[in-house]
Design a protein that fits this description.
The protein is an alpha/beta fold. It has helices at residues 187-196, 222-239, 252-262, 279-293, 302-310, 316-323, 327-330, 350-361, 400-412, and strands at 12-16, 24-32, 35-44, 52-57, 62-69, 76-81, 86-93, 96-103, 106-114, 134-141, 146-153, 164-170, 201-205, 242-250, 268-272, 337-342, 369-373. The chain contains nine helices and 17 strands.
Length: 413
């Protein structure tokens, strides 16, 4: 659900010059109609013919995309990505590679100049010294044969034998690292830092096949990821260090939190933009909201969405998600639940999703908190509706009001 804008997310097949003149990092701004994307190429020239290259699309969180080199020239560049019907050709002139980016038969000018991509300002990311302790830990999903690696963050002034609340953090859809790194932001790193300063411990871990975690996500569904999280919960309980053990999930992670809550695996649940309605309905709403945001009429129906899916290659994760109805799990949850959304979330729309969550949890627990925050997007960043998906450009990683509310709610349990 996070990475709905995916202009370029595939292994590249490239033809470039071996000329020393185009060695190093080159960048350019692609103006593709209603969106602008910075494209960065890293060319590593080798005289022995074993040159390599990588590509970044920072705004999409796509970094280090491997590039294969084919065509050789002293002053020209030619790239293509067959899977995306994308091509780029350019010629080095007066220090600039002047070229044309072509995708789906639509040409756009793209000039490249030497230089690194600008490092975005992320003022909420913690700076050393941290003022609290962290520990590299590993837990195992034995049934799947998967070892998962993460960071256990202790609160400020924590001492051995002091029982404190802890949350295990569950990422949104797609393979993500323990910081839930997306669009140049590290939401879970920021959350872990904030919670530690509020007396709350946390465990965040790399998804299967990401970072230091083993395994693969091929053929997996949310059920598999819930099993991973369940083993993380068991690991936390077995340490004997914590008072209350909860789950904090974002987007698909919020959905998995509900699944675990229904089974009584956690003492409390925090769902950040978690789904409350059936997957196919959510995706149809999402696509229509994005179309409307970009000035197009909202024309996507559930029927059309399913027809489109049926024409594509099988995707077991997507098939499960589209058929999943949160009502089944929400109706079984009795532990305290905090469910939050932003009013400008165009990926998990607040009205329908929070409305369903409120309905299915009604009367279950007096400590439940269901809240919509004005002016926040899917990552809980402040924005206007027109900039709701400018995640990369927004410096804020997560609203302080949301972070404070989460900490206060957990401490009140």
């Amino acid at each position: 659900m996070e990475k709905v804008i995916s202009l370029i997310l595939a292994v590249m097949v490239v033809s470039i010059s071996y000329a020393q003149a185009i060695n190093g990092t080159w960048k350019g701004m692609l103006n593709a109609g209603n969106q602008k994307l910075e494209i960065v190429f890293h060319f590593n020239y080798q005289k022995d013919g074993n040159s390599t290259a990588e590509m970044d699309v920072p705004a999409q969180g796509a970094l280090g995309i491997p590039v294969n080199l084919k065509f050789l020239s002293t002053d020209s560049v030619s790239l293509e990505v067959m899977a995306l019907l994308m091509a780029y050709t350019g010629k080095l002139t007066d220090g600039t590679i002047k070229g044309t980016f072509n995708q789906f038969g639509m040409p756009f000018p793209l000039d490249l100049k030497p230089g690194e991509a600008a490092i975005p300002n992320r003022p909420q990311e913690p700076k050393l010294p941290l003022g609290y302790n962290t520990e590299e830990v590993t837990f195992t999903n034995q049934d799947a044969g998967v070892s998962l690696s993460g960071t256990l963050t202790y609160p400020v002034d924590y001492t051995s034998g002091k029982k404190v609340p802890v949350v295990i953090m569950l990422t949104g859809s797609g393979a993500q690292n323990r910081n839930e790194e997306v669009f140049g932001h590290k939401p879970f790193l920021v959350m872990a830092d904030y919670l530690a300063k509020q007396g709350i411990a946390s465990l965040r871990y790399d998804d299967r096949g990401v970072g230091k975690s083993a395994g693969s996500q091929v053929g997996c569904t949310s059920v598999d990821f819930a099993a991973d999280a369940e083993n993380g919960l068991s690991w936390l309980k077995n340490t004997g260090k914590f008072s209350r053990i909860g789950v904090l999930g974002h987007s698909e992670g919020g959905m998995i939190a509900f699944m675990l809550g229904a089974e009584g695996k956690a003492d409390f649940i925090v769902s950040m933009a978690g789904p409350g309605i059936k997957g196919d309905t959510l995706l149809a709403e999402q696509q229509n909201a994005i179309l409307k945001l970009k000035g197009f009429p909202p024309t996507v129906t559930v029927k059309a969405l399913r027809k489109s899916m049926a024409a594509q290659s099988s995707n077991v994760w997507l098939e499960y998600f589209m058929n999943y109805d949160p009502q089944i799990n929400l109706s079984k949850i009795t532990v305290p639940v905090m469910a939050v959304n932003g009013s400008n979330d165009v990926q998990v729309l607040p009205d329908s999703n929070l409305g369903a969550i409120r309905k299915y949890l009604s009367g279950k627990n007096k400590k439940n908190l269901i809240k919509e925050y004005s002016g926040l997007n899917h990552l809980f960043q402040h924005c206007n509706l027109s900039t709701a998906m400018d995640y990369y450009k927004i410096e804020e990683t997560c609203s302080l009001e949301v972070l404070q509310d989460i900490a206060d709610w957990i401490k009140s349990l």
